[in-house]
Structures are given as C-alpha cells and as structure tokens.
Specification:
Structural class of chain A: mainly alpha
Oligomer: homotrimer
Radius of gyration of chain A: 17 Å
Largest sheet of chain A: none
Distance between the termini of chain A: 50 Å
Low-confidence stretches of chain A: none
Helix content of chain A: over 70%
Order of helices and strands of chain A: HHHHHHHHH
Mean pLDDT of chain A: 85
Number of domains of chain A: 1
C-alpha cells in the first residue's frame, strides 16, 4: 500500500521530469508525452522484457499510461513555475528511485530468480527509465556519468534483500530502505559525492 | 488482403527511406540494410516484444527480411534518381503509417488487451520504426519533434476502434480509416500543421 | 567445450572493450560496468528477446554478470597499459565475433526457426553488443559504418549452416568457421577491406 502510493507519486514525478527534458530539446506535445511515459514506465518495462514477465504492468493497467500523459502535459503547462520547485523534484526523484528499486526487487523475488539478479532487477527498474529518456533526447545517459545514482539503487536492493534474509517483514524492510536510501541520495546530491569519473586521458589510445 | 498489399508496399517504402537516411550518415552497405530493415520491421517488433506476442512476424516469415534488404539495396543504387520522387515517398510513407496502425490495432484486438492499449499498439506499430531509424543514426527521433505524425496514428487507431464498435465491418473500417488518415496526413504535410513545439525558453531552468 | 571457453574469453574481452570506450566518454565506474556488461551480454540478450527464448542466459547464469563487471573494472585499472595491447584486443574481438555468431546459430537451430533466421540470430549475437555500446555512448554504431564486420558474421553463420548441412559434425564445423572467419576478419582489418561507404552526396536530397 505504501509502495503503491509511492509508485504513483514516482511515475508522476518521473513523467514530469521526462517532459521537462524533452521541452529543452524542442519536442512537440506528443514527444513530451512519449518521453515522459518512457521515463516513468521504461524501467519496469525493460525489467519485465528481460525477465520475460508478461503481461507488462502498463498493458494490464492502462490507467498508468493516462497518469503519465497527464503529468507530462501538466509539466509542459506549468514549466515556468516548476523552476522554483527544483528541490522538490530532486527529492521526489530520489524517493522514486528507491521505491522503483524495492518494487523491482519484489518482482524478482516473486519470479524466483537468483539473488544477484533480484538486486539487478531492482536497479534496472530504478535507473532504466532515466536512461531511455536520455537516449530519446540524444544524450549520453546521465546515470552513466553522474554522481551516486545507480550505485545507490544497487545498494538499496542489496540492503532490502539482506533485511528480508534476516527475517524482517517486507513492510518494515521497505520503510528502512526507503529512509536510508533517500537520505543517502540526498546527501550525495548535497555534497556532490560521486564515483571516480574517467577522462579521455585515462583511457589513452587503448582501443 | 488490402492490408496485406499495403503492408508489403509500406515495408518496402520504409526500408528505402531508412536506407536513404543511413546513406546521408556515411554508413556502408550492411548498415543501410540494417537501418532499412529496422525502419520497416521495427514498429511491429517493438509492439510484439511489449505485448509478449511471439513469435515475431519476421521470424516466422523470414521473406519479409529479404524484401527489406532488397529495398534498401535498391534505394542505395537508385539514390541519385530518387530525389525526384520525394513527393511519392511522402505519400507512400503516409499510407504506410495508417496501414501499420490498423495492422497494430488488429494485433491488439486479437490478443484481447484493453481499448487504450489497442490504440497504443497501433500507434507504436506506426511510429516506432522511424524512431529506431533515428536512434541508429544518432538523431533525436523526428517523430518526437515534428508535425502531426504520431497524433495522426493515435487518431486513426481511435477512429478504427470506434467504427468497429459501431458495427462497421473490419474491411469497411480499414478503407475509411486509410482514406481519412491519409488525407489528414497529406494535409498536415502540405500546410505544415503541427503541435506546439517547445523551446528551451519554455522549459526554463526547471530541471 | 571449445565454444564455452571461447565464450568466456569473448565476454571478458568485449566487457573490457566497452569499458575503455566508456572511459573516453567521461563515464564513472558504474557506467563502465554497465557499458561493459551491455557490450558483452547485449548481443545474446537482443537475440533471445527477439526469439522469445526465455530465461535469458545471464539471468539463469548470473556469474556471467560478475565476470563482465570484473573485466570492466580491470580494464579501467589497467587502461594506461592496455594501449600497448591494442593488437591483442583486435584479435580477441575477432575471435569473439565468430564464437558469438556460432553460438547464436546454435540457439536458432535449437529453437527450430527457418534457415535465414538462424543466420540472422548468429549475426545479431555477434554484432548487437557493439551496437548497444555505441548507442549508450551516443555514437552512430561503428558496425553500421565500418569495415567488414557484420558481413563476416553473416558469412560465418552461412558457412556454419552449410557445413552442418553437408554432414560435418558441429565440432569440426565450429573449428573450421572459427579459423576461416578469424582469418578473414584479421585480413579485413589489416588491409582495410570494406564495403562501399556512402556519403551525403550519394544520397542527394532524396528524402
């Protein structure tokens, strides 16, 4: 129930974020809706296609598509005001990342795949929406270059499984992972924590 | 039968259009064949992967792949002359868009998914081929930025379902949608109808 | 057994090659791991998603993911030295291309698809990893533009099927295709054999 509410908030926020990136690349209204929807539902779609978990969520629950289209159009209308809410977006996006990751882990657990794949299923759900957004907008996916984002998804998935393994109930584990994952992500944003970024000089002329 | 003929014409035209875009990006002959094939068969492939509708059309009917490869090589050979036929390409592409959309709706109906997903399945079939072409050529997909294209696919799919719902036979509905969709698309091209396109200024520094 | 050993060598080499390309595009350590893994396992994943062949290899054998992540991190650490090994990389990549192609053909044969699709399944396995790498790094896939690479995969797949059709055992056919495919690829690299590359001038203003 908690996760379901967070899921709805997260897909709304992700759809708005996708639409705002699309606006800056000169897309029309349809493009915004598509990029917003791909950002919001793309992570779960990639996960389910890789796991062969059919039917896809948004195909059996088509109302999710209407939510993301509505959110994208709303973002386009409100864009001039949304610039004052950037902090809110970052926070909702961080919550969404962790909520998506936990939901993805639960799908992996339900399908009975091995532990590393459960964690990967969670991380894929968390980060692939943003990767699709960046591919459609012809940019190198931010998640491949930027501060601790995917790493937090992987760590959150690992922690969630560890808590379940220790006998913690799914609800308690979800809340614990949400709080700690959200806090870590916000601290990473605030203090610009990031993994070592490589430059051309590091790669040399090796390949 | 009508749709099957249109399908063959449409995949030929789409494969040629993909090959011509690939030529302008400096691809070799293999690249042209692959981009042409992805443009022609990509929309149906994305639809079937999302719907879990296996086996894919071109895997059970591999002759379609030979048609698209042949069309791509033909386009490369004829390129200097094809520039005089641009109007014909636009018309065939418009017919293909509507034919693909109707075929995609029929697949959705056969699988028994909900009405909004049937319309989406149609639109995905119509537009995803061109999106794959643009991704492979490292461009922001035209369909996300340009005049009424995807919107016409959505409207055509909706009209088709409405006609079926009113008891019109599939054949009559197909012809009605083909004629009206084709006319709308040609008018949109002729008079540069388009949805509002957003610029960086609209998006502000919001995200 | 031979193919399995070659497969392990090939995914290691492909993961390192993906990581080195990612380094030159300013990715962080997570990005390198993801691009390396996508390069190594992406070809087989695309093939299996298109053929509906579930579960995917790396989902039932998650240790492959650890191998590719390890190889990507190793490449990042060793990058300054790897520039002296470029010749070795090209050779291992050529072996990997042929090994992936034979493995892909075997999957197609096992699933009982038609002959042209078996050859395509092989070529997709061989080349799609590199295409994913280039898409994630925001480049036009090299395989669409460059010297005989995909064409060799198609020819190797065709030769393999031909040998099996003539009653040659799978082991003997694999060795024969590996040796001849590897030699052709190395000669293509050495003498810059390539298919005709098209330029904007060829395409004219056709589309």
């Amino acid at each position: 129930m908690l996760l379901y509410t967070l899921y709805l908030i997260a897909i709304t926020a992700e759809a708005m974020s996708g639409a705002l990136v699309g606006m800056r690349r000169g897309m029309d209204r349809f493009g915004l809706c598509l990029v917003g929807t791909a950002t919001a539902l793309g992570g779960g779609t990639v996960r389910d296609v890789l796991l062969g978990n059919y039917p896809l969520t948004w195909i059996s629950h088509s109302n999710y598509v209407f939510i993301t289209i509505g959110a994208a159009l709303l973002a386009a209308t409100l864009a001039p005001w949304l610039r004052h809410l950037q902090g809110l977006f970052v926070a909702v996006d961080a919550l969404g990342l962790i909520a998506f990751t936990i939901i993805g882990c639960n799908v992996g657990l339900k399908l009975g795949v091995s532990t590393p794949i459960v964690v990967l299923a969670g991380a894929i759900t968390g980060v692939c929406g943003g990767m699709l957004r960046d591919l459609l907008c012809n940019e190198i996916p931010l998640v491949l270059r930027q501060d601790l984002y995917a790493s937090i998804a992987l760590a959150a998935g690992g922690l969630y499984l560890l808590l379940l393994h220790w006998g913690v109930t799914a609800d308690t584990a979800s809340v614990a992972v949400l709080v700690s994952g959200f806090a870590t992500r916000m601290l990473a944003v605030r203090f610009h924590w990031q993994l070592k970024v490589y430059s051309s000089a590091d790669a040399g002329g090796a390949h």
